[in-house]
Amino acid sequence: xxxxxxxxxxxxxxxxxxxxxxxxxxxxxxxxxxxxxxxxxxxxxxxxxxxxxxxxxxxxxxxxxxxxxxxxxxxxxxxxxxxxxxxxxxxxxxxxxxxxxxxxxxxxxxxxxxxxxxxxxxxxxxxxxxxxxxxxxxxxxxxxxxxxxxxxxxxxxxxxxxxxxxxxxxxxxxxxxxxxxxxxxxxxxxxxxxxxxxxxxxxxxxxxxxxxxxxxxxxxxxxxxxxxxxxxxxxxxxxxxxxxxxxxxxxxxxxxxxxxxxxxxxxxxxxxxxxxxxxxxxxxxxxxxxxxxxxxxxxxxxxxxxxxxxxxxxxxxxxxxxxxxxxxxxxxxxxxxxxxxxxxxxxxxxxxxxxxxxxxxxxxxxxxxxxxxxxxxxxxxxxxxxxxxxxxxxxxxxxxxxxxxxxxxxxxxxxxxxxxxxxxxxxxxxxxxxxxxxxxxxxxxxxxxxxxxxxxxxxxxxxxxxxxxxx
Length: 471
What we know:
alpha/beta, 471 residues, 5-stranded parallel beta sheet
C-alpha cells in the first residue's frame, strides 16, 4: 500500500505525475517496502508516495498461533477498480456512510469506488482527497469526523491497526483489510480472467479439527458461488488432516468433480488470508442434518437416547489443551472449567438439569468437572491430554504425531468421530454452555437450529465483553 507523505527533498527518487493511474504506474516499478516516489502534482503541492508491505499493516502477528506462517496478506500489485465483476461489492451492503482517518492508496481507491457504484456518503478530514477524487456532493471534507462510530451502517476505516474481524462485524477495520475484502478475487486471479475458470480450490490447513473442515468447506462453497465458481478439492486424498475416503462414510461432502482440472480450477494463494474476509468469516456455520449420512445420524440419535432418554440435559463444551497450547487470544481465548463452574451450578439449580453432558479434550477439565458435579457429569470415552503434558506452545497434533506409535491416522479418525458424536449430542441437549467461540461450538448451534432453551458463551478474551447469553 502507498501512503501519501511530504516531499523528501534530501534525496532523489523517480518522479511520477499525479494522474488517475498513479498507483498502478508506481506498482509496475515492483516497489519494495520503503520505496519512495516523488509526485508532480498539478492540483496542488507536490508530494511523495511511499510503499509499505501490507503485512506491516496487520494486527500484532505475535498473537497468531505458531503454526500460522507468513505471508499473512496479499500485496495487491495488480488490481483493477473498474472491473466490478471481480469485486465483492456486497461488502458495502447495509453501509450508508464511510469515513477514513488516513489518506492513502486504498482509501483513495475505495472512495472512488463507493462514489461510482454506491450511494454511500464519504467523510474525511484531509482536503488532499480532492487531488485524487473530483468534487462530489457525497464526499464531505470536514475538520472533524462524525463521533458516532459504532453504528452498523458505518464503515470506519482507521489509520491504526484495527481488524474489526474477530467480532464478525467488519465495520471498523484498517485500510488493508477493507481493501482486501473488496478486491480479494482479483488477488486470487492475479491478472487472469475469471471467465476462464469453473472451479476454485485451496489447501485447507492441517491444524483444524473436523468442525473447522466442515465449516470451511461450506463457507467456501457459499462464498465463491457469488463468482460462479464451485469449491473443490480435486485429486485430494485428504481434507486438512483427514482422509476424504473416511470422512465420506459419515459426512456428505460435495468437494470433488470429475470435470475439475488444473486448467479450469483457480487456486487460492494463501489460506490464512481468507480469514480476513467477511464473506468467509461472516457466513454462519450451516452444518445441519443434510451434511450427515442418514446412517451416521441414526447412530448418534440412538446413542443419545441410550444415554439420556427423557432426562433434562445441560450440554457443556470446554476447550482446553488444543486452544491453550496453540496460543489462542482475543475471542478465541477459552474460559477455564473453574470460571464456568458457577454458571453451571446456577443453571443446574435454576432449571433442574438431571445430567451435564461434557465435551472436552482436556483431562484436567474433565477431572475438575467430576469433582465439582459428581455423577451429574457424563462424557464420551476418548483419549485426553493435560496442558502440562505438552511442551510450551506445542500444538496438539504435533504431540499426537510424536507419540502415536505409528497409529496417528487411525487414532485421528477415531478421535474425529468421537468429537463429532460429542458435537451432535451437545446439539440435542436442552441448553448449552460454551467456553468460547470455536468452530465446534458454532456447529453445535447450527445443528441445534435455535432449539436451546438457554445458551451461554463465555468470552473472556474479548475487551468489554465478559460473556454473552441467549435465552
